[in-house]
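Researcher: Good morning. I'm working through a list of sequences from a screen, and I'd like to move beyond sequence-only analysis. For each chain I'm collecting a predicted structure so we can compare shapes side by side. This is the next one on the list. No need for commentary yet; just the structure.
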Amino acid sequence: MAKRKKNPEINEERLTERDLMFLKLALPRDIVRESTHLRINECFRTYVVAYSYPSHIEDLMIARLQDLDGVIITLDITPTPKHIALQNVSMSMQELRAREMNDQKDAEALQDAYDYSDLQELHGVISRANEHIVSHTLRFLVTGQTEDELKENVKNVRDTLKIYGIESYVPENELVMEYKTTTLPADTVKKPIPLYSTLSRQFPFRYESHYDPNGTYFGPTGSGGQVFLDPTLNDQAQQRLSYDLVLCGVKGSGKSATIKSMLQDILCCGHRAIVLDEEGEFKEMVKKLGGALVSPFDSSGRINILDFPRSSVDSDPNEKAAMSAYAAGISRVETFFKQLVPDMSILESDALKSALHRLYGRFGITEQNLSEIEADAMPSISDLLSEIQDILSDKEMTQSRREIFENLESYVRSVSVQEGFGSLFDCKSSLDISDAPFVVIDLSLLSQMEARVYNAMLYAALSLSWQAVYNNREYNRHIKEGEQRRHLVIAITEAHRYLNTNNPAGLEFIEKLVRRARKYDSGLWFDSQRARDFMPSSGSEASEKIKTIFELVQYKAVLKQDEASIPVMKELFPQFTESELLSATSFLPGQMLLSLGNGVKLRVRKHIPEEDLKYFGGGREREEEN
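Model: Good morning. Structure tokens for this chain:
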């Protein structure tokens, strides 16, 4: 009789003496081994093992899988040292690169590209973030009273896993080993998974939370924990060293209500807030809280750019770039005109400073007597125009110099009473924001004006607001022991209108403020709908400046996004993984990814009481959701 040939594809189990001892002690006496299942007494059982996962694993996914009927889940975990994890990921990336050299079908090449992108992301969170990697094997022990029932249950399990994007298999001819996994460690698949950002979020008894000692209630996390946040906390250990915030969320994401709620928390803790309101959204809130609402279009909100700050604060002697109040005032006017005329040349800037020195000298204003000069005694734009015209009256002036001052005259004339914008800029200062704890500067009427005029006016308002920062530092210098330090927040809504690649002068100014704010117990808060509004394209010097500003900002909050913004979001928010950013496309109003720095990230939803939503606005989205 011919010998039966062995099927080379079948891996037959060979039992060792140890296996036989295990069978004798642990297995039921009546056990039948088949290639795809075990029959123990009158019960059939087998194992389904997961081997492939999607890039993003939903929170509490494993916990939800426990609802499967007739299934026992086991999870074997093995810690992986960081250097080993990086080595394994690098080797896998090299293997995928090598496969590019071979001829592949389009579908295979595309899948390899996806796999390579996933590995890049994994390498990033290991090397840059405070993340650890563990290998794991997820098994499902499936039972049935009959073989057909077992097959049906296995199909249900595998179909359910596919819904979550998980691929699985039944380990044929290896079922004795699989049976031993119920009592012994058996991480055989060794699938790597991030510990903190993914695995720890799979279980309801492990919840993500954060507590600052003096924090106010911020909201619940996705895993059921609570967040108490103090954005004015200065903690070296947590690397929370500044108070700046950038918040991005599309329309309907709850962005406006979130920043209003956070500002209200700041005010309730005894701090100050100044809002540059581009959309006119804060009128109801400032009225409700008894703050001051001012507008540069009203007689009480005029800003004379030629005025010097009404402040007794001296320059910081510890700053190498510190300037006197007089020099700072000259620089302030120069930056204003650069905002108004982005192409203004260096020679024209020098001519402007020369004219300003002559003008202030004619008005008897020197560095020594600045604090004695009242706002009504300061020169205006019309006075500067007259000074330039007087310079042009010199008949001995060279032609090249005359051309420079003629250009300068046209720039100054455009913001004088002789032209259309004179009512905004050619005036005496009447805006006083030194006392009110909550001030809203309404810039909504500027939104329809051309970008250069908007930028110039916003710069004037922002530079004036910055004087409140100096005054706040003076306040903190004189507090008594045991008294609370007072912090100041300057919030710029729809900040992309000013903070963008088309406004290099504005970027330079904002970068200086962000670098200096922490020293004065102050922070700048920016909000915008989409990240690509800040940086439509990358690779330019201005885009690198924006990235630098975002790196300097302490707190990053990403609310709901559209998929088109994800590539730019990856550049501006490298602390979030691509899968985390993609999850933001399905966020509910107020839900966000919040980075506190030092690798600490939270998935949290801002809690806003219904009575606050009534005057915050933005409540309709949440009502519709409910």
